[in-house]
Sequence to fold (169 residues):
Amino acid sequence: MPYVYAAIITLANAVFCAGILFGLPGTWLMLVFPLVLAWWQPGLHLFSPAVLWSAAGLAALGEVLEFTLGAAGSRREGGSGRAAALALVGGVIGGVLGTAIPVPVVGTLLGACLGAFAGSLAGDLWAGRSLFRGLRAGRAAAVGRLYGTLSKLAVGAAIFLVLVVSAFL
Fold:
């Protein structure tokens, strides 16, 4: 029976990992699912506490990477502090609004990148910077947000592998 639960967790975690591209908290869902299973089947020990803590640390790292790389891109190109802060906010709002775009995966990712761009541009214009400087910082924020999402996807893949190996050993 443990292998059945391990297979179910593996399939669910594959779906959660793919959900990262849709803006879902896939890394955290991959962590919660084994915890729910441990609560539901207390005698079943598929995961050690060290594995779960490692997965939690990786999930936190994924969140930090996803949300800060857009702001870091804006700052790297000379964007203001307001531009960096609004790139974070714009990325979140754009990701939510981009989910309504009828193209799966691309809609959410495109919305998050465009939101980071718009937020960074608005922040630079609000700070009194020139339009061209704001456009450069906005482009860097959009690229940073894309890299942040891809980094979180890579972290999600690492969590997936750690949990799969632990479940079947």
Remarks:
- The chain has six helices and no strands.
